[in-house]
Amino acid sequence: MSDNDSGSPAERFERRRGRLTAIAFRMLGASGEAEDAVQETWVRLSRTDIGEIRNLDGWLTTALSRICLDGLRAREVKQEYPLGSFVPEVLPCAPVGGPEERAVLTEDMERAVLVLMHRLHPAERVAFVLHDMFEVPFYEIAEILDRSPNAARLLASKARHRVVGETDALRPDTLREHRIVRAFLAAVRAADIEAVVRVLAADITVSADAAAAPGSVAITAEGTRIVARLAAGFAQRVDFAAVVLVDGRPGALVAPAGQAPTVLAFTIEGEKITRVDVIGEPETLARLALTVPELSV
What is the DSSP letter of 249? Predict the structure, then answer.
């Protein structure tokens, strides 16, 4: 018997709590709801003869996933979507590595994935989280969702396409553009005005809608120095930015803890950024096709 399978039911559960919390958070996107789901899983286990459970890890994953699935379905009926506002500064730890299709990359990328997953239907979200993030095989996911293994595979694939997109379909210039976006974000994070200026075109224009602009008033700014100073003032929020595709073009998704997300859509010519559209209006965000590209630059 391994150490993980020894001790009282409570001790065995506690050794698995971290993984269960990570799963629940990625399914629900809200830390409070995730903790409630994990606690409900413990209540169900405490009412069960643990000696009759052959695979405790599988039993707990199934029980938790069904609780989360019910919560997601209830949220969908009420049209309640967190829109990333519950993403914490530190994400619950998830395993590294996984199947070749896995979509989760660095923590900032995963933060963006969590924000975008609110667009998924409950069954898609469960299938995507369990398979792509936690390597749960499709035959187990099928039992949780009451679907066939092939249907579970299709759900995960559809979710992956909606969140990650098709890497093979990227335009030839995408890698170059995302390198420039990353350089811009790094310079903004460092509040390095000179470095920001180096990636901006002389006639750079920034436009921010009322939901994204300081003071809740839409603004437009032109010129490298003015734009660089505005960007430097954005430094703390950009700590939570990840490179994304915005309607197939280079962009960034900014999702600070406890705040609604903002999207930066870039226009790039050659090696310079010529325009940045800062979008925070929920209705506008909902119309954008946003994906997190799995890129190596």
Answer: E
Q: Where in the chain is the domain with CATH 3.10.450.50?
A: 169-291
Q: Which residues are bridge partners to 64 per DSSP?
A: none
* Phi-psi map region of 165: left, alpha, beta (phi>0 left; psi -120 to 50 alpha): left
Q: Helix %, strand %, coil % for the chain, to 5? A: 55, 15, 30
pLDDT of residue 201 exceeding 90, the answer is yes
Secondary structure letter of residue 90 according to DSSP: S
Show the beta-strand stretches assigned E in 25-67. Answer: none
61 membership: H or E segment, kind and range: helix 56-78
Q: What integer is the mean pLDDT of 222-230?
A: 86
Residue with tokens 């994070």: 189
Tokens standing for residue 18: 């971290």
pLDDT at 83 over 50: no
CA nearest 19: which of 53, 77, 70, 58? 58
Which string of DSSP letters, residue by residue, matches 183-227?
Answer: HHHHHHHTT-HHHHHHTEEEEEEEEE-TTTSGGG--EEEESHHHH
Neighbour tally for 172: CB within 10 Å: 6
Of the two residues 128 and 117, the one the predictor is more confident about is 128
Taking only the tens place, the pLDDT of each residue in 121-143 is 999 999 999 998 899 999 999 99
For residue 269, give both structure tokens: 């010519």
Average pLDDT, the chain: 83
The CATH topology of domain 169-291 is: Nuclear Transport Factor 2; Chain: A, (3.10.450)
pLDDT at residue 163, as a whole number: 87
Token pair belonging to 15: 């050794």
The DSSP secondary-structure symbol of 271 reads T
Mean predicted confidence (pLDDT) in 158-178: 77
Answering whether pTM is above 0.85, one says no
Query: Which residue from 271, 187, 262 is spatially nearest to 229, judged by alpha carbons?
Result: 187
